[in-house]
Structure formats: structure tokens, C-alpha cells
Amino acid sequence: MRHRMTVLVWILLISILGFAGIVNAEQGKQMKRVKIRGVVERIDGREAVVRTSRGAHVRVMMGPESYWAYRGYHLEPGQNVSVYGWYPEDNHDSFFAGTISGSGFSFGLTSSSGTPYWVEQDEQHRMAPSYTVYHEWYGPQYIYNPPPRREEVRIAPPGHDDRDRHGHREH
Hints:
- By secondary structure, the protein is an alpha+beta fold.
- Helix content is 24%, strand content 27%.
- The chain has helices at residues 2-27, 65-71, 131-138, and strands spanning 31-44, 47-52, 57-61, 80-88, 94-102, 105-108.
- Strand 2 (47-52) and strand 3 form a beta hairpin.
């Protein structure tokens, strides 16, 4: 009986390590942080295409449109930009933006560790940066629900009303 328990424990341990290896292999596309500079050629939803000075066209993943709208960020074709972000080392298909800056603007999209600001707190435990996680965080299936905006309520001091804005009443 003792021998069977030992074998069962070893099988379980090997299975767990094997599963962890599969998960790491899936997320294992290493990412490297790089900077690109160029001109925004077009914007299509969550993605911008930047033409570098060498003529390369780079697809820049920018995150949820709702995050941009909530922050008041706006990017237009023709703007010169510098983009810090992450590329998969073995595939330069998608570039995941961390910051986008240009003349008179700078948009922060991720923390210094690479976690996007739109990611909910309970998801931030994931290891970053990894291609699989970024593909989900920047992808079309990720919905950013901004916190409700605070509305300012002003209470007029006693003896004042809306008509008393400049110290006198209208007659």
C-alpha cells in the first residue's frame, strides 16, 4: 500500500510539472522591450500602423478604445511618434505599446513592469510581459470598464441662489 501511494504521488507530481511546462511553453514566447520611431500612417480601432524611418510598417497594439476615450487620448495619422513597448522575440507581427509620445503629448499605457493600466486588479498577478497574456490584454475580447466619473455637486451658501452669481440679483 505504501509503495502504491508513493507511485501515485510521483505520478501526480510529474503530471503537475508537465502541465506547468505546457502553460509556460504557451506563454513562453519571450518578449523584448524596444523603442520604435516613425510616422502614424493609419489607425484602425485598437491598432495603429507606424512607418519607421527605415520604411518598415509596424502594427502597434494600443489597448482598448474605451481606455483611450476615458483618458482623453487621441492619435492621428501623420503624427511623429516614439513608442516604447514589447515585441515577441521570434515574431515581429505585433508590437504592444507601453508609452506613446510625440510633440506635446505622452500617453502612458502600462506600468514600469509592463502591466497595462486598464487591466483589473485581480488579473495583475500574471507574469508580464508574455505574448499570450499581452495578446489577451490588448486584444478585442478585453473590455475595459472605466470607473464611474465623479460628479461635482455644488451647494450654494445660505442666502444665495443660481440668480445670485455675481453678487446681485436680477430683477
